[in-house]
Write a structure and sequence with these properties.
Blueprint: E1 6-11, H1 19-32, E2 36-40, H2 44-49, E3 52-55, H3 82-95, E4 99-104, H4 106-118, E5 123-128, H5 144-165, E6 167-173, H6 180-189, E7 193-195, H7 203-215, E8 221-226, H8 233-244, E9 249-254, H9 266-284, E10 290-295, E11 298-303, H10 304-307, H11 317-326
Parallel strand pairs: 1-2, 1-4, 4-5, 5-10, 6-8, 6-9, 7-8
Antiparallel strand pairs: 2-3, 10-11
Helix pairs in contact: 1-9, 5-6, 6-11
Bound molecules: adenosine-5'-triphosphate.
Adenosine-5'-triphosphate (ATP) binds next to helix 4.
Length: about 325
């Protein structure tokens, strides 16, 4: 069986609340098991630039409550090239790293899988860390819960002003090609409509719904538009609706990067801790090219390749049905 002695840990892609609790769990679980840990700064960039440092228990003190990531993150294009990967490998070997924990989203895992296939003597274990919640093999990804709660708080505030003025608000939320945040936030805030990339909404149907809502004496309406929605973006949708719905004063809000920040929720702190703990234990058990994830409240492993299979990823059918029925 593969035996490891030094783990490198990195965060890559978009930052997500919960990454810090995960880093802490990786470091302390590894040290507890007699392994050494190297922190790699700015994702794969730190491997290529040899920007790394030895971590001890104290280097992860007081970080459970911090959003972002103490290791920093980056989008690193050179890692996609053979030369970049070779440089990363040489630096990792020179440090004595024989296993990597990579915390990130699908791009991060794509890179990890390529790297590990090219250089199988370094084991890799993925931890799903992205607010987008778009990976197969984990019902929840790190940061999704916190980001959704942040969105809910913001929309509740917008609802107050919408109600006071009889306004119709179009609110764009993050998620890249995933409508997961939009769907959950929409149900939680009683949005009148939720536009998702996973399910096409005809603008005519949206307009008909909003007119019906007005006739039913709704004093305000909130329409959530996921950033990946295919109707031409939140401004395009708002403009098309304004031409047909004259009774409302229409406003557009893009929540933007505030969705990424803030202290991780209890859920993300526990999830980060569980996943970090499990990732190190899986590496110690000789595993590689896998992702640890949460399934039915158990931590299970999925092949990285399967985790990347977007076609298998689906939003929950009952939530989709509910969103139509409850918002009428
Ligand atoms: P998020 O879902 O939050 O955006 P992500 O992990 O999907 O996170 P990306 O920017 O897509 O974020 O990927 C992170 C990094 O992974 C890239 O900057 C790059 O260094 C590496 N990466 C992505 N795709 C590949 C690839 N095909 N080959 C090698 N490395 C890759």
């Amino acid at each position: 069986m593969r035996k490891i002695s030094k783990i490198g840990v990195l965060t890559s892609g978009g930052d997500a609340p919960g990454m810090n609790p995960c880093i802490r769990a990786v470091v302390r679980t590894a040290l507890y098991n007699g392994l050494e840990v190297v922190g790699i700064r700015q994702g794969y960039k730190g491997l290529i630039d040899n920007d790394m440092y030895e971590m001890d228990r104290r280097s992860v003190s007081n970080i459970l409550n911090l959003g972002g990531t103490i290791l920093k993150t980056a989008r690193c294009l050179p890692f996609k090239t053979d030369e970049g990967m070779e440089q990363a490998y040489q630096h990792a070997k020179a440090r004595g790293i024989d296993a990597l924990v990579v915390i990130g989203g699908d791009g991060t895992f794509t890179g990890a899988l390529r790297f590990s296939r090219k250089y199988p003597d370094i084991a890799v274990m993925g931890v799903p860390g992205t607010i987008d919640n778009d990976l197969c093999g984990s019902t929840y990804t790190l940061g999704f819960d916190t980001a959704t709660n942040t969105v809910i708080q913001a929309i509740d505030k917008i609802r107050d002003t919408a109600d006071a003025h009889d306004r119709l608000f179009f609110i764009e939320v993050m998620g890249r090609d995933s409508g997961a945040i939009a769907l959950r936030a929409g149900i939680s805030c009683g949005a009148e409509a939720i536009l998702l990339p996973e399910r096409a909404t005809a603008i005519d149907d949206l307009i008909a719904n909003l007119k019906e809502g007005h006739m039913n004496k709704k004093s305000s309406s909130i329409v959530i538009v996921a950033e990946g929605d295919k109707n031409g973006g939140v401004y395009g949708v708002a403009k098309a609706v304004q031409e047909e719905v004259k009774n409302y004063d229409i406003k557009v809000t893009i929540l933007g990067h505030l969705q990424r920040g803030g202290a991780p929720s209890s859920f993300d702190r526990i999830l980060g801790s569980r996943l970090g703990f499990a990732a190190v234990n899986a590496l110690i058990a000789g595993e590689s090219q896998k992702m640890v994830g949460l399934q039915a409240n158990h931590i299970l492993m999925t092949d990285l390749e399967a985790a990347l299979n977007h076609h298998e990823f689906k939003l929950e059918e009952d939530l989709l049905q509910m969103m139509d029925i409850l918002s009428i």
